């Protein structure tokens, strides 16, 4: 296999895809979703978040999910959790989590609205969490949101995005996922950002996280591939999205991403048929239609 043609997919549906759902989703259904995604060949699953259930009720069963994974997880795969602070990290440690994600926003307004912290405050927390995680031999991935636009401020300063990314890497994050949180990015803007980013940060430490609000996600992935990005976040059936972005239609659907990659000469290790079945399963649970065009085209 030519490793330059291998693309890593970070499947975020069990966390990012479900966290804002209003319909109560049972622990059993969450575990079945993870099982189905696992069996489809996805090697990286973000399975939950150690946040207060008061703020994110859908993540209340995260400890139970990791208890299940300790007994049934597939070797050589990554099962990660998002943690917002030291308290969340302590829960992750107690649950034997081997990899976590931290997050900050590149927009001051979005940061205050989303987590009630300034960028400086969130950076301080992220640094503390990363440092403590490293002491416990836990790998850390970082999310940087609003890199191509903010629902409150509009355009986000490119240099600020670059500087924040560099800081997260200097703190010890092995990869920073650049998030177009409200899906306003275009291929041209994505190219501009990545060219600026590559002057300061190794491209191997960058990932793309594109939302499909304006139908630009796959186009942004394509440009990112040309610039050397080889890791992308996506969510089966296009689940999830930004609750603060009017009309946000959710994450890039994993089915659509896999279809494009596999029909463009890239390898993912994912079985598309099984992936579509996983999306169909969770859509039945949620009583909704899929946001994946590929799934619609292949489901009778």
TrEMBL record:
Signal peptide: none annotated. GO terms for biological process: ketone body biosynthetic process; L-leucine catabolic process. Coiled coil: none annotated. Keywords: Lyase, Metal-binding. The keyword Zinc-finger does not apply. Pathway: Metabolic intermediate metabolism; (S)-3-hydroxy-3-methylglutaryl-CoA degradation; acetoacetate from (S)-3-hydroxy-3-methylglutaryl-CoA: step 1/1. It is an enzyme of class 4 (lyase). It catalyses: (3S)-3-hydroxy-3-methylglutaryl-CoA = acetoacetate + acetyl-CoA. GO terms for molecular function: hydroxymethylglutaryl-CoA lyase activity; metal ion binding. The keyword Cell membrane does not apply. Residues 7-276 form the Pyruvate carboxyltransferase domain. Its EC number is 4.1.3.4. Belongs to the HMG-CoA lyase family. This is hydroxymethylglutaryl-CoA lyase. It comes from Acinetobacter guerrae. The lineage of its organism: Bacteria, Pseudomonadati, Pseudomonadota, Gammaproteobacteria, Moraxellales.
